[in-house]
Input
Amino acid sequence: MVGGDEALPSQSRRRDAIRNAARASGFVERTVLHADGRFDWSLLTQAVRAGSLFSQRHLVEVRLPSGKPGKDGAEALLVHAATAADDALTLLCLPRLDRAARDSSWARAVEAAGVWVEVADVERAALQDWIGRRLGRQRQSAPRPALEFLAERVEGNLLAAHQEITKLELLFAPGELTFEQVADSVLNVAPLRRLCGCRWR
Output
């Protein structure tokens, strides 16, 4: 299970890491199930038993955006945790669960049968370092005042921070960014418009 409130960057990265590791271990085929309110949980059992066309191992990815499987889903996950075969790897993607859901029988059963990866929130005090690390991944860096400025502007919104960091990668070459470059990127969208050839109103 991969769960947490953190949007796009960390959630996606952890899921991708699991998918890549599964593929490297021979789980070639992937089935994705979207478990919304009308989801038929018997499809989970069918997907696990169906096997792969190209390999004996396959990945079944279940996306549960509400984090609440309902009565049928809870029963299906209990059975699945107890009976899942070794040739089927299940990736359950869901948001951060509250205490009651975390202590539910289905959640405890799934955790006991596998691994629970919790994506931690980024506290405001740690946001500067979080931004700095992500700039580093695109071979950029910025002085501390620029990181603080960017952290203040996004107001703790990680998706907004991710978008601003991506914009810096599009606008500037790898290396040390100046405070002025970061501030201009955040406050002025005109350079990005010119880069994209867009005519926004």
User: Anything to note?
Assistant: The CA atoms of residues 99 and 107 lie 11 Å apart. The longest helix spans residues 8-24. The beta strands are 2-3, 27-34, 57-63, 88-94, 117-118, 140-141, 175-176.
